Amino acid sequence: MRQTQNNVESYRDWRMVVLAGVLGFAVTLAVMEIIDAYLLSLTSLSIALAAVTGSLSGICLVGSFSAWRVRQKLSEQNMRLDGALNNMIQGLCMFDAQNRLLVWNERYRAMYNIDPLRIWRGCTIRDLLDARIAAGTFPLDPARYDGELRTALKQGKSFRLNIELRDGRIIDAVNQPIEGGGWVATHEDITERKRAEHELIRTRTFLDTIINNVPSNIVVKELPSLRYLLVNQAGEKHFGLPREKMIGKTAAEIFPKGTADLIHQRDLELLKSCRETFTDEHAIVTPDGTNRIVSTTRHPVMGDDGKPQYMISVIDDLTQRKRDEAYIAHMAHYDTLTELPNRTAFNECVAATLELAAAAGESFGLLSIDLDRFKTVNDVFGPSVGDRLLREVAGRLEQACQGAFIARVGSDEFHVITPTGPQPATAETLAAKMLAALDTDIDIDGLPQRVGLTVGVAIFPQDGVDAVTLVANADAALFRAKSEMRGSIRFFELAMDQQLRAKRVLQQDLRTAIVRDEIELHYQPQAHIDGEITGFEALVRWHHPRQGMVSPGTFIPLAEESGIIIELGEWILRTACREAASWPWPLYIAINLSPVQFQHGDLPKLVHQVLLETGLSPARLELEITEGVLIGDFNRAVSVLRRLKALGVRIAMDDFGTGYSSLSYLQSFPFDKIKIDQSFIANLGRSQQAATIVRAVIALGRGLALPVVAEGVETEEQLKFLASESCNEIQGYFVGRPKPIADYAALVGRRDAPKQKALAATG
């Protein structure tokens, strides 16, 4: 810039010298002409010439001084301009109409690290671009840049471009045309500003990403207009409306009137309360018409003036949770199959009814109901038909109750609480209606099914003043009705309570019978049809300290009902296997299993453990089951049986012919033996049907290559019939009664005696 100023000043001084020379030459010529024309004397000429010379000198001096003063002012102005230009934060260049550089500042040169020798007044834009390329500060195509620049300037438009240099700096170059031709270019380093903008954009993007991915619904409103400013993605989904259709609007412009009024009211409550947060739970209707239950937490955001400027609302959609809670509550109180109240609901209802009846001095009846013949349908046609039958039965009973409370408390068990009123007439009338409701067939897949009811009734307060007693007495009445006549209605009597108490006492005594050494095993021999002993069946006996010998038919059901059968069954298995392992002769030992043992614990693991402990060969152990084992969870039962069989033990089907699905069970599992129930053997001489059934079972066993054992053989005529039909084995009093093993010592080889025939043991 300084070089340009000096050039200008030198140019002006040179013009002044030339002007003075020309003027002096002209004056000299003029003087010579005057002398020649007027023939002036030398003195006069000298005086005139001196005067002219003095005048010219004065003029020159004045002119020189004026020129010096002008140069001083120009120099001062140029210095101020130079200072201003070089102190600009932008680099600056000015070009004339011929595309030549007139002015530039040091900021421009330093910004692009241009060699001072490569920038001069009068250089072209292309010269400057080449200088920047040499300095490594022009990363673009110079020809393209020059062309685009010229095109824009010709059109009178500014040409602006952000250029990122190799060192990472970003320069904002603005080329602005000026009147009369030429243009001014400013170059500003905007690196930090761009970084700040990028950081702001990154921060905003980050915040937008976080807010949009928050699972809760977030909205922001402007105050005091309460117009929506922000809605995140969860909010869009919740409201069922794109955020573009919500931003800038109020709740009244978006929601149905009732919901809009509620939202507006709650927003105002926050503003009026001056609280930091305000949370409430309410139902809304979203813009798409969906009903929702939400919990909204509102929080004001204060401005610089200390007044609320924005309101942030976090909305949690509780709809599904409320539905789940309602479903869980329903599940906790209702049976999933029949949709009737369950035992929990019944317990709550009976407790409330007792309280109200006692306070009012009124009476009500409690009915304990059991379905008749349902087990048969379930076994024959399967659980699917059984479930559909239960649903139909439940519907009929509920309709017959006419508002009375009915609950399903077991598989095929129901409890009914009658309305208060005269008793026992009210209870009896209701029970009769329920029996009549099942008096017709129920069609399931075109198959007519019929089930009945047996009802036991207890009356408050005479049969019990608390729920436990009342239910127990209704159950006692039901038990009596089932044992005497199915399909009947029985009211509780004191004698029933005494029987129930006796049952409970006996059940309690059974819990300690093993510890008190009151349980023992008797062994009944099994023999080949020719009389040779093949093994023994272990049968449990209970010597009660007060009641004497208790029948297995009495205490085994009690053990199964209370779960004691698990402990008792393990004791029987271990005791019988230990005993059989001690026999000199390798006879097999048969042990009965309860269905309950298949439902609880790991039975195959227990059997394996006992075999290892006692040393008994698995081939000598025969486990007898009834079809009750396979009823219920058939797949689990078969899986357990297969694991048992894998141990090497034998599996026998006991009481064959008394159930309804025995044939299908034979097809489902490879049994090793079937035992004909003793009820058929007992009727051989009196019933042709019994003989036909026995003959058919023996033939079935022969066809399936399964040994058949006839139970309950007591006479020689029965033995002859079985022998004629080629029955394999027999068991019964004719072979030997159940006795302690000591009574059969010779048969197991504990004496020096020849092996005896079975018939020799009957005497």
Question: What does this molecule look like?
Answer:
This protein has 763 residues and is an alpha+beta fold. It folds into 5 domains: 85 residues; 104 residues, 2-Layer Sandwich (Beta-Lactamase); 109 residues, PAS domain (Beta-Lactamase); 159 residues, Reverse transcriptase/Diguanylate cyclase domain (Alpha-Beta Plaits); 246 residues, EAL domain (TIM Barrel, Alpha-Beta Barrel), CATH 3.20.20. Strand 4 and strand 5 form a beta hairpin. The N terminus and C terminus are likely disordered.
Task: Summarize it.
The chain is of the alpha+beta class and 763 residues long. Helices cover 48% and strands 21% of the residues. The chain folds into 5 domains: 2-86; 91-194, PAS domain (Beta-Lactamase); 214-322, Beta-Lactamase, CATH 3.30.450; 334-492, Alpha-Beta Plaits (2-Layer Sandwich), CATH 3.30.70; 516-761, EAL domain (TIM Barrel, Alpha-Beta Barrel).
Assign the CATH class of the largest domain: Alpha Beta
What's the total helix number?
24
CATH topology of the largest domain: TIM Barrel
| CATH homologous group name of the largest domain | EAL domain
